[in-house]
Design goal:
Blueprint lengths: L3 H12 L3 E9 L2 E9 L5 E8 L1 H5 L4 H20 L26 E3 H7 L19 H5 L4 H12 L5 H19 L12 H13 L5 H20 L26 H14 L1 H12 L4 H5 L6 E2 L4 E4 L10 E4 L2 H10 L24 H14 L10 H12 L4 H8 L4 H8 L6 H8 L4
Antiparallel strand pairs: 1-2, 2-3, 3-4, 5-6, 6-7
């Protein structure tokens, strides 16, 4: 031990009751060093403060800033232990004294009280702040707002999807985003826990009152979006995989028998002959109403007597050729298909060729108007003609495989689902044509 060391130890022991060591704290207002020294006049400890937020802000890494500030804390404690008191001195001519805030005279604490509270700290202990763990790249990524990630999903994954698919996903994301905003204005991806997803799907089913089919479609879209988010490290787990699908509902459509179709034909012949062509396309070619709306003149070959359903229009995204009946060829000639511009839609204003396709709303509303005039069942919708066409083709002798291909189904099981509807004439058919035992 050197000669100076016993002297410092003695001074430290003498001054141990005249100060409390400097410590570093982080408050909502910023970083602060504080310590207590004895006021010679009142013999009470008085708090001194040094703001070091500005010093911390100079460093890119927080740990570098902490090392700098802790060196200040250590230097202060060495000087306090040696007997230095800023209330007695303004300079010791050896090193600059840090600039302190003005003394708050009203805030004084008895020496004995603070010593009792700080007894376990010992002499000149530097209380280093808890070093916060630096988040990983993945953890930072999970803090990305869902609103930002959902936009990126639409931009990256739906570029080559059909417009209807894009609209469906955009609508689903909009519903989810608006619901999340009612809970928190800025929901992060990491916040999308299982309970949140469960609450959202309960809201969709109970408050928005969607059908079981729509509910299941939402679950499937949610699974697709969240799978992409897992792959991109925005979330650790796909919570939509735990959402159970609703039991499939039995389709409410019924077969439209020949007598009812004859009533429809007579009504449309008198009131809207071009809408009758749409009905024939649904029944005879098994085209979906949406596919009919998207047909262009260039898709029709009167010479080959076929219609080309483009992949971007088809539900299953596969191009196919559909044969025309002689009656439909005559109808197209009457419409002027052979004289129309090839880039025009087959059905535009007044259900004639034109540059703007008719809306889905028009097709549905006109059918409902006709159905009410003829007093038909509400279960008879335009799409019912497609189911009726499949059923009549199979009963008429066309093999199920050909019907499956014409209907653009994945399997014969799917065709069976669409043909398994109530036939109002079934009892009469069985009664009149049942074989004798």
């Amino acid at each position: 031990m050197t000669n100076s060391q016993p002297t410092l130890a003695l001074v430290t022991a003498v001054n141990a009751t005249r100060y409390l060591p400097a410590t570093l704290h982080k408050y909502p207002s910023g970083w602060l060093i504080d310590y207590y020294v004895e006021d010679p006049q009142t013999q009470k400890l008085q708090r001194k403060k040094i703001k070091v937020t500005r010093i911390m802000s100079r460093y890119t890494l927080k740990n570098d800033g902490l090392r700098h500030v802790n060196s200040i804390v250590a230097a202060l404690n060495i000087r306090l232990a040696s007997g230095w008191n800023p209330l007695l001195y303004t300079s010791d001519n050896t090193e600059p004294i840090p600039v302190f805030e003005p003394v708050n005279v009203s805030k004084t604490i008895p020496v004995a009280t603070l010593l009792a509270e700080q007894a376990n700290q010992g002499e000149c202990i530097v209380l280093s702040p808890k070093v916060e763990k630096q988040p990983t790249v993945e953890e930072l990524r999970m803090q990305t707002p869902f609103s930002e990630v959902s936009k990126k999903y639409l931009e990256e994954t739906l570029k080559e999807k059909r417009p209807d698919t894009i609209r469906s996903y955009s609508s689903f994301i909009s519903i989810l985003s608006n619901w999340l905003k009612t809970r928190d204005k800025d929901v992060k991806c990491i916040d999308l826990k299982g309970c949140i997803i469960t609450d959202f799907m309960d809201y969709v089913y109970s408050e928005r009152k969607v059908s079981g089919t729509t509910y299941n479609n939402y679950v499937k879209m949610g699974r697709a979006i969240f799978t992409w988010m897992v792959d991109k490290y925005y979330i650790p787990k796909n919570e939509f995989t735990n959402v159970k699908l609703k039991k499939k509902e039995q389709k409410s459509r019924i077969v439209i028998d020949a007598q009812t179709r004859d009533e429809i034909k007579k009504y449309l012949d008198q009131n809207n002959p071009n809408y009758l062509i749409i009905c024939k396309l649904v029944y005879n070619t098994l085209l979906r109403p949406k596919e009919i709306r998207m047909l262009k003149i260039d898709d029709i070959s009167l010479e080959e007597k076929t219609i080309r359903v483009r992949s971007e229009v088809a539900k299953n995204e596969k191009e196919r050729l559909v044969p025309l009946t002689p009656e439909l060829v005559d109808d197209f000639m009457r419409l002027g298909v052979d004289r129309a511009m090839t880039d025009h839609y087959l059905f535009s204003e007044k259900l004639r060729p034109g540059k703007n396709k008719i809306s889905d709303a028009y097709m549905r509303k006109y059918w409902d108007k006709m159905r009410k005039r003829l007093n038909l069942s509400e279960n008879m919708v335009l799409y019912s003609l497609r189911d009726s066409g499949m059923t009549d083709m199979i009963k008429g002798g066309i093999d199920p495989l050909s019907v499956k291909q014409l209907a653009d189904h994945h399997s014969l099981e799917m065709t069976a689902i669409y043909t398994n509807h109530v036939d109002p004439n079934l009892q009469k058919i069985v009664y009149e044509h049942s074989p004798t035992f």
